[in-house]
Amino acid sequence: MSILIGCIFGFIIWFLMRYLVAGIYTVDQNQRAVKTSFGRAERIGNLTTLDDPVSDMLSDDQKSRYAYPQVRVIMPGGPYFKWPWERIHKISIATETVNMAWDPEDASANYNNTMLEAVTKDQLNTGLTGQIRYRIAERNLYAFIFGIKNPYAHVMGYFVSVLRERIANFEAPPVPAEEGAHDTAAVIGISINDLRKNLRDLNEHMDQECTSSAARYGMVLDATLITSIDPPPEVESALAAINTAYNQVSSDISLAQASADQKIVQSRRAVEIETLRAQAEVEPLVRLANQLMDLKSRGSEALRAYVRNVRLALFEKAQQVFVESKK
After folding, report:
1. pTM above 0.70?
2. Could you tell me if 24 and 83 are in contact, meaning their C-beta atoms sit under 8 angstroms apart?
3. φ, ψ for residue 177, nearest 5 deg
């Protein structure tokens, strides 16, 4: 009898420790949790991610494919309690940084996850290095936990496909005619040079294209930073020679343009000086004409008196005077 009581007592203690005490849990500050009961997550009514602003970046076709139920998120704190048939899925929402060549399924891919390859528009196989900053989307935990088998591999595959498509079709922004009338970059047409000169535009394009990743896969790509673009070794020397020639041509064009601008400025200044000289010579004549017209308007006697006074002044300055006499 005592053995039976001991077994019962031991079973009760085991049950309490196994299913009640072990059912107490906490959630850290950088974590969020979702509770499932018999494998089904606790949901918020019939709401889906389409009712949340996280899906605003999706197109109409994408909204029909990426409609996930909204689940109840357990915030940091505790202690909380769960029953034996319930399970807690904890996810870290801290922002993390990984190499953009990282392959979650194959550690030897992309040169041991150090460099990503892509083909440019002129069929050159180039290497890309950089970083991706990401975090789990708190507003779409269902997609990350239950919607995708391996969300990290899925998101990295999506990012790589978008990046390779962009590089394969990348064209440098057009230069305004007044700024690039003598620019020879379009003649050279080397896409690797264009990519190197427009890394900022490429990074901004990737950020814009990946804004829908939170609604698609439950991961937010905070920023992408492509740090370098390296062509194949056999192409690097050719590109260096082309860049050197281009820089020399650009320098010669700049010097010629500066010389032409200087000559134009000098010509304009000479025209202004000659114009001022002509005005200085014409101005006394204009004033004299105005004065004579004013005297004429006062009568013929005033004009004759003025002419007589001018003659007397000239006679005083002259050393010899020749007077015409009538025979």
Report:
1. no
2. no
3. -60, -40
